[in-house]
Amino acid sequence: MSVQYRSPLFLACSGMGRRAPLTCVPLVGKSIAAVQEEIDYLGGRRPELFEVRMDAWDYAATVADLMAMMVAVREKTRGTELILTCRHPREGGLRAVPEQTRKQVYAEVAQKGLAEFVDLELSSGPAIDAVREALRGTATKLVLSAHDFDKTPSREAMRAVLEAEVAAGADVVKLAVMPAREEDVLALLETSLAFRRAHPEIPQIAIAMGTLGMPSRLLGGSFGSDLTFAAGAHSSAPGQIPLAALQDCFGALYGTSTVA
């Protein structure tokens, strides 16, 4: 399946003529006050996107409560594109949310235009089809992710994961792996570059996690990765670089400035 969608933000990324990846800061606060503190922590700095972690929220688990929280978060982050993510603990998530609840929230968020993207793990199986159908006819697009917190698979296996995400209907593909040695980081970057050349029309996020993987967050744009995650007040994965430091590095590496 060939995905023709390109976000207005992703149009400017490495595969479309800009080498510095966009930055995305996760918001993992349990309450709207905690989310506001995370935003305030950034000071005058702003990423191009925020990732809203619904699985972090301290809530009564009803769709109405979750939607009220999402409306409040959207108001606090107005002017910045959002990725809404809700991971199960088995996927590295912070708490369990019933599958039907997640699907309904994703559908209502898309219908109300409260987030530009929603994120699902490739391992979600039938839930992918249900969410993709719920997004049909809306402006909200689907990020399909695959995280391996234990190792870096072979180049062939990593490429197969990215191709599987495309086949499953992803508008944006994401792959994050854990390197054990420097060669693993190189393998991730090589896989990213090969995918970019084969699929220049599909936005891609490719990350090697942990301290060893930090170069992938800095140099990924030169190898076809369109976005990287940066730490704000908190991080959501090992190896995320603080936003200010990452933006300063991008200014030196790519000759760009992303300071608001």
Give a short synopsis of this structure.
By secondary structure, the chain is of the alpha/beta class. Helices cover 37% and strands 18% of the residues.
Principal-axes shape call:
globular
Number of strands: 9
User: What would you report as the Rg, rounded to the nearest angstrom?
Assistant: 17 Å
Structural class category: alpha/beta
Poorly predicted segments:
1-8, 11-17
Strands in their spatial order, largest beta sheet: 7-6-5-4-3-2-1-8-9
What is the average of the pLDDT values?
88
Write down the secondary-structure element order: EHEHEHEHEHEHEHEEH
Summed up, the helix count is 8
The portion of residues forming beta strands comes to 15-25%
Distance between the termini: 37 Å
The major β-sheet equals:
9 strands, parallel
Instruction: Tell me the helix content.
Output: 25-40%
Description:
The chain has 260 residues and is of the alpha/beta class. 37% of the residues lie in helices and 18% in strands. It has eight helices and nine strands. It has helices at 32-41, 63-76, 99-112, 126-135, 155-167, 182-198, 214-219, 243-254; strands at residues 22-27, 49-53, 81-85, 117-121, 141-148, 172-177, 204-208, 227-231, 241-242. It has a nine-stranded parallel β-sheet. It is globular, with a radius of gyration of 17 Å. The model is unreliable at 1-8 and 11-17 (pLDDT under 50).
